[in-house]
Amino acid sequence: MSGRSLAVVIGAGIAGLAMAGTAAGRFDRVLLLDRDQLPDTATPRRGVPQSYHGHVLLAAGQAALEELFPGVRDELVAAGALPFDFGVALGFYRYGAVWSRVPSGLEMLAMTRPLLELTLRRRIAALPNVRIRPSVAVAGLTGDGTRVTGVVLDDGETVPADLVLDATGRGMRSDRWLGALGLPTPDVVEVKIGVRYATQLVRCDDGDLADTAGMLVLPTPPAEKRTGLALAVEGDRWLVGLGGWHGEHPTPDPDGFRAYAKSLPEPTIGDLLARAEPVTDIVAFQFPSSRRRRFELLREPPGGYLAVGDAICSFNPVYGQGMTVAALEAAALGRLLDRVPDNSGRLARAFYREAARIIRTPWQFAVGADFVYPETTGPRPRAIPLLNRYSTRLQLAARTDPELRRTFTWVQQLVTPPGALFTPRVIARVLRRRTDPA
């Protein structure tokens, strides 16, 4: 392939694995680098501290991964992932009530992030033109002032590349790398949300959660700030995550963790923990801000280099959007590589425009919801107060209206554009429903 000899992917998380899958069909060779010693089992790893915590692959993300890795859904189910309908099998509590269970027609998979990473990593490792190098850290980039031409490893080795895909996550290392070459770096939008949470894997009799995927409890803002998730995952275990915004979070000790679960306004998660046996320790994590790097606004983005996944935009993890956005970006990059004949700034401009389109809806949803809290600071999207008032009325109505619930779920799962929530029919149904919490 002319100009498509070698692609280097930095980072073997979900974004890096998805990008490696895309590149493998379009480059002669793909080199996937990660600083961790990658495990051969579905276990969390040091370089991905969030791998201990709950992750959700939305329906749109599952479809994108299936496009990149045909048959991966069945492989995940065979490995223990649990398929479920979000509208039926997952109890959903918000605005003072458990919502009516309504079939959505959208399948999701309940699993741990390490299982998803392991499954994708095995698919990547089986490709004849892909090499995975674990325990290798990248120290910088090489370039000529207009484009990136390769990477420099921490031992001084230089690896020339036709395209570098930066999946290193939300840290700002790449800005230092680009700046050292005199290449432009993007403006950063940061919204401080003060989210902290803790997670534990447990085992127990299913009890009230028999034949379900679990329970999600979201607060009624702004008065409430605590949230909780209990999710059935592979290995006959439950993943329990508890957290909150702006100072509300559990202490990472058994008594504090159980007490926090009991404080939630819906009792299911607290009752589950009371009879559960721990499988792992409690692991805490903090996410102070959502961060978006506006590469699409650069007049001349560097050629030969693309930031992807959390390296472009990292979302509030409570909403479970990050893995899906990374998968959608990888699928979009594949289509662009098929259409754009080189790896220059032209490809970068096209990719960042497409990534911005993918990011727009989940960013507006997540940041808009976080601005319900007066403690949230940062650039406020336009019309957020009005949109949040409408969103509240919509969700109050959707608790008992099957049509609104399905429409809301399809938009939430990034399958249907958000305009579906603003049609005359939907607005009419919202306005004529009760809007006081039950």
Outline the structure in words.
The chain has 438 residues and is α/β, with parallel strands linked by helices. It folds into three domains: 6-55 and 113-187 and 294-367, FAD/NAD(P)-binding domain; 192-288, D-Amino Acid Oxidase, Chain A, domain 2 (2-Layer Sandwich), CATH 3.30.9; 384-432, no CATH class. Helix content is 33%, strand content 24%. It contains twelve helices and 19 strands. The strands form four sheets. Strands 4, 5, 12, 13, 14, 15, 16, 17 and 19 form a nine-stranded mixed sheet that branches. A five-stranded parallel sheet has the order 7-2-1-11-18. Strands 8-9-10 form a three-stranded antiparallel sheet. Strand 8 (138-143) and strand 9 form a beta hairpin. The termini are far apart.
* Main CATH class of the largest domain: Alpha Beta
Number of helices: 12
> Which structural class fits the helix and strand makeup?
alpha/beta
* Average of the residue pLDDT scores: 94
Q: List the domain count as a whole number.
A: 3
Q: Largest sheet, described in full? A: 9 strands, mixed
Radius of gyration: 22 Å
Based on CA inertia axes, which overall geometry fits? globular
Low-confidence regions? none
**CATH architectural arrangement of the largest domain:** 3-Layer(bba) Sandwich
